[in-house]
Amino acid sequence: MTAASYRADPGLAEVDVSVYRAGDYGGFGGPLPLLTLSVPRSRQATYAAALKAGSYERVWVGDRAAAPAPKLTPLQDLERLPIFAGTRAALLAEKLEQQKGLQTGGIRGGKLYRGSPLRRQVALTFDDVPHPMYFPLLLDVLGREKAHATFFIIGRNAQAYPYFILDLIRGGHEVANHTFHHVRLPGLSDAQITAELQSTNALISGINGQPVRYFRPPGGRYSARVTRIAEGLGLTTVFWTDDPGDFQNPGVETVEARFARHLHPGGIILLHDNAPDGLAALPDLLNVARQQGYVVDTVGDLTR
After folding, report:
1. Cα–Cα dist 119/96, whole Å
2. What gap in Å lies between CA 116 and CA 122, rounded to an integer?
C-alpha cells in the first residue's frame, strides 16, 4: 500500500495509513481506526520487517488500548468567540473578569485571555489535533519556519496517532488538552467533565512523560464549573484573541488579512491543523508577525 503511494507520487516524504472497518466508519467522532501507521520515505525499505518483528514505533493497533466510551456526541461547532454558560450574575462576573484579563494580560483565576500587552509577543495555537492528512505537513512548515506552537489535543485523536504527538514534542512544540471526545462541557456532570480532562491528561503524559498545563474547551463553550474543575486538575483554561477563521477555508488572502488586522501584543492566535487555507497561509502569517517585530511563541512562553 505505501509502496504504491510512493510510486504514484515520488515527491511524497511520508505516507500515513488509517484502516477502518467499512461498516463502522463514522468520520469525526465515529469509531477509531483498527490500525494506523506512518511510513517516512527513509523507512520505506525497512518498516515492513520492523512491523513484522513488532518493533516498529510508528504504528498503533486499536485493540491495544481501550478508550473511555461514554455516550457523548462530539461537538461540531467551531471555536469563534468563547461562549459562557451560567446565570446572569455569573455571566456579568465573567465579562468583568474577561475585560480585566484582556487589559492586563496573564493568568487570572486559572484562565488566560491574553499575554502581556507590554511585549510584542504572540502565541500560536492549533486546535483539534492531530489529523493524519494534514498534521505532518503542518509540522514540516513549522520546522522550516523555525516556529513553535501550542497544540490543543483531542485525546481520541492522540490515542490513534501517538507517534504524531511524539513528533510534535521532538519538534519543541507544546502539548495541551482539548478533551478526550471534543464534547460540549457545560452540560456534563462534574464526573464527566473530570473524566474528559483526566483521560486526556493521562494519555498525553503517558506519551511525553510531562504534566499537561493548558486546556481549551471545545467550541469555546465553558462555565465557571468547567474552569474550576480544570484548575483543580492543574490546568489553565486558555482562550484566544485572534481567530482568522481558517477552518472555513475562506481563501488564503482572507486568512492573512484577518490575521494581520487582529495582531497585537500578547495575542493568542487560533488555527487548526486540518484547514488547507490556514496551512497555505501559515508562512506568510509568520512573516507578517516577524516583520512587525513580534516574537511568535507557545502559550507557555507567553505566560513566562
Report:
1. 23
2. 9
Contacts (Cβ under 8 Å, ≥6 apart) of 298: 123, 124, 148, 149, 150, 173, 174
- CA of 81: how far to CAs of 137, 192, 219, 255, in Å? 27, 24, 8, 17
For position 71, what pLDDT does the model report?
A: 63
Edge-first strand listing for the sheet containing 35-40: 14-19, 35-40, 59-61
The verdict on whether omega for the bond into residue 10 sits within 30 degrees of 0, i.e. cis, is no
Model confidence, pTM: 0.93
CATH class of 83-303: alpha beta
36 phi, psi to nearest 5 deg: -135, 150
Kindly give, in sequence order, each residue whose CB lies less than 8 Å from that of residue 29, ignoring residues fewer than 6 positions away.
73, 74, 181, 182
Q: Would you say residue 126 has pLDDT above 60?
A: yes
Share of the chain above pLDDT 90, in %: 85
Q: CA-CA distance, 125 to 148, in Å (whole number)?
A: 9
Question: Grid coordinates standing for 106?
Answer: 496573564
φ/ψ of 274, rounded to 5, equals: -115, 35
Question: Three cell numbers at 287?
Answer: 512573516
Domain boundaries, the chain: 2-64, 83-303
The rounded radius of gyration (Å) of the Cα atoms in the chain is 20
C-alpha cell at 108: 487570572
**Which pLDDT score is estimated for 27?**
80
Give per-residue pLDDT as tens, 46-67.
Answer: 998 999 999 999 999 986 544 4
SS (H, E, C) 97-108: HHHHHHHHCCEE
- Which positions are catalytic? 127, 272
pLDDT at 65: 46
Spatial separation of the C-alpha atoms in residues 98 and 110, rounded to whole Å: 12
Q: How many CB atoms lie within 10 A of CB 169?
A: 17
pLDDT digits (tens, 9 = 90+) for 92-119: 999 999 999 999 999 999 999 999 999 9
How far is residue 239's CA from residue 216's CA, in Å, rounded to a whole number? 7
